[in-house]
Design goal:
Layout lengths: L12 H18 L3 E7 L14 E7 L5 H17 L7 E7 L13 E5 L2 E6 L4 H12 L1 E4 L12 H16 L6 H4 L2 H18 L7 H11 L4 H9 L9 H18 L3
Helix pairs in contact: 1-2, 3-4, 4-6, 4-9, 6-7, 6-8, 6-9, 7-8
């Protein structure tokens, strides 16, 4: 897909303009260092909810960004979030050197990542690394460069299930002891829906979007239907006061995943 066709990639005109501004700016600032630019996340598989969802982007570059490149990319993102203020703090973007794309485990080498309105020059990758690459391989939209799946080795479903289990125990189970983090309504909603996707992947055996995983979880575990539905209804500006229930759901998910006995 070239820049001339970027205007029609999502049903949202403002987001299309934002994505086009990012793609054009990255190519202008990084020039020959750019291999591919990609749109991922809920915008690519029909689950996007304007009141709740983020915009997920990824750039694949030939070599790790230098200090001057980091400065120009930081300026680009700040300019974009100022121009499209409604999406400020809701854009996530990584800049991954090509040599790291062959890694199936989270690479030890950090990469630049923009999120929450800040550029982290050396952000470590977690267990979401393989999961995100799998979803980009299946659903990602190429804004510039080759299809994403041509840049990564084939990813087996079993590897995604294992990565999801590791993500649960390394990233989310510890949140049961972080009352300050869990008191945030956004985090409660995000965690519940993410747990649905982990359960659907590890127990159900199929990675699905958060929306589809929520439907699956409500049918599989009807006792948690009310909590999942409240997480699905949450939007920026609203409150969700289910901290204790979310903590219990984390424990429940951990038990179900352990029962799945993934290798």
């Amino acid at each position: 897909m070239n820049e001339a066709t970027l205007g029609a990639i999502t049903p949202y005109n403002e987001i299309n303009n934002l994505i086009a501004a990012w793609a054009h700016g990255v190519r202008e600032h990084l020039a020959d260092n750019v291999i591919g630019l990609y749109l991922g996340g809920s915008l690519t598989y029909g689950d996007f909810v304007p009141q709740r969802s983020d915009i997920d982007l990824q750039a694949v570059v030939r070599s790790q960004l230098k200090q001057d490149e980091l400065a120009t990319i930081e300026g680009l993102h700040k300019e974009i979030e100022n121009r499209f203020a409604v999406w400020a703090g809701r854009i996530e973007c990584s800049y991954v050197p090509l040599q790291l794309m062959s890694e199936t485990k989270p690479p030890a080498t950090p990469r630049p990542w923009w999120g929450f309105g800040v550029l982290y020059a050396e952000a470590p990758a977690g267990n979401e690394w393989l999961i995100n690459h799998y979803l980009l391989s299946q659903h990602g939209i190429s804004l510039y460069g080759p299809p994403f799946k041509e840049l990564v080795p084939p990813i087996r479903l079993e590897e995604v299930r294992q990565a999801s289990a590791r993500d649960l125990f390394a990233e989310w189970v510890p949140k049961m002891n972080d009352s300050a983090w869990l008191s945030d309504s956004h985090q409660q909603s995000y965690l519940v829906l993410n747990l649905c996707r982990i359960l659907c992947t590890c127990v159900g055996g199929e990675p699905r979007s958060k929306k589809a995983a929520g439907v699956w979880a409500k049918e599989k575990y009807p006792g948690w239907r009310d909590l999942v539905e409240e997480a699905e209804r949450w939007s920026y500006g609203s409150e969700m006061k289910r901290q204790n229930d979310v903590m219990a759901f984390v424990g429940f998910a951990a038990e179900r995943v352990m029962e799945a006995r993934l290798p």
